[in-house]
Amino acid sequence: MLVVDQLTKRFGANTAVDNASFTVDRPKMIGIIGRSGAGKSTFLRMMNRLTDATEGEIRFEGRNVLALKGAEKRAWQSDCAMIFQQFNLVPRMDVVSNVLHGTLAKRPALSTVFNLYPREDIHRAIDILERLGIADHAAKRAEALSGGQQQRVAIARALMQDPKVILADEPIASLDPMNAQIVMEALRRIHDEDGRMVIANLHTLDTARRYCDRVIGMRDGRIVFDGTPEQLTTGVARDIYGAGADFSEDATSTEIRDPVAETEIRQAEVAI
Ligand SMILES: Nc1ncnc2c1ncn2[C@@H]1O[C@H](COP(=O)(O)OP(=O)(O)OP(=O)(O)O)[C@@H](O)[C@H]1O
């Protein structure tokens, strides 16, 4: 259903993504790992057309999405919702309105100007917030929420688009380990229960191993690993990160070893 074919992006002399190819035959949860500057964000930005490719194709369900223009391009951007490290919410706006922003692309311009949302959209927004365990915060300003809660609002906004693919660019990089787990659990459940493809750039190996079905490793713009979490051995990881013999997985770990925090996570997971 997704074919990335010899995809390249150059910024002047710098090749950010270098002849990358892979195929996904059914919705999966995919983690992309690699050190800073490996090309992970550039790849996601090409996927949802925030950045144009220099060469190559991305075909989704048979169509080259890199060639789409106008309304078709906007429809594709709505089909592959993006979540960012910094949440990108409107801080002073309440949570429900932030979530309803996810429908903007599909609504007439005038209703957008006057902030008019159909009743069924408001109900759907609340349902999604409930599903993510944050409906109690619906009326609060987004800026009043914790980072983990804000990221769940961003996920809710993405779900309002009813996307086929969720692209998450370092979704937990700004979160403490407890909130990181809650957010990753939410993404995993959305994948399992809705059958949506999730592609997440992740900076920690253990997160990729724990939540993803498939891991793609990038180094200097190239795909240097593509396999299951089990195949992602320490030796392979060392290769992806280009680290020496002193490479330590603990340096990239988000594991929680605090039993109180573990209990809080389980409670939050029940709510999702
Ligand atoms: N708009 C841009 N203009 C010029 N160079 C860019 C631009 N965006 C990215 N690059 C370069 O492309 C390369 C890949 O960057 P990219 O952000 O995709 O990597 P990354 O793996 O996502 O790293 P990070 O985790 O630090 O964001 C880097 O060398 C970066 O400097």
UniProtKB/TrEMBL annotation:
<feature type="domain" description="ABC transporter">
    <location>
        <begin position="2"/>
        <end position="245"/>
    </location>
</feature>
<keyword id="KW-0997">Cell inner membrane</keyword>
<keyword id="KW-0472">Membrane</keyword>
<dbReference type="InterPro" id="IPR027417">
    <property type="entry name" value="P-loop_NTPase"/>
</dbReference>
<dbReference type="Pfam" id="PF00005">
    <property type="entry name" value="ABC_tran"/>
</dbReference>
<keyword id="KW-0547">Nucleotide-binding</keyword>
<protein>
    <submittedName>
        <fullName>Phosphonate ABC transporter, ATP-binding protein</fullName>
    </submittedName>
</protein>
<dbReference type="InterPro" id="IPR050086">
    <property type="entry name" value="MetN_ABC_transporter-like"/>
</dbReference>
<keyword id="KW-0813">Transport</keyword>
<dbReference type="GO" id="GO:0015416">
    <property type="term" value="F:ABC-type phosphonate transporter activity"/>
</dbReference>
<dbReference type="InterPro" id="IPR017871">
    <property type="entry name" value="ABC_transporter-like_CS"/>
</dbReference>
<keyword id="KW-1003">Cell membrane</keyword>
<dbReference type="InterPro" id="IPR003593">
    <property type="entry name" value="AAA+_ATPase"/>
</dbReference>
<dbReference type="InterPro" id="IPR003439">
    <property type="entry name" value="ABC_transporter-like_ATP-bd"/>
</dbReference>
<dbReference type="GO" id="GO:0016887">
    <property type="term" value="F:ATP hydrolysis activity"/>
</dbReference>
<dbReference type="GO" id="GO:0005524">
    <property type="term" value="F:ATP binding"/>
</dbReference>
<dbReference type="InterPro" id="IPR012693">
    <property type="entry name" value="ABC_transpr_PhnC"/>
</dbReference>
<keyword id="KW-0067">ATP-binding</keyword>
<dbReference type="GO" id="GO:0016020">
    <property type="term" value="C:membrane"/>
</dbReference>
<keyword id="KW-1278">Translocase</keyword>
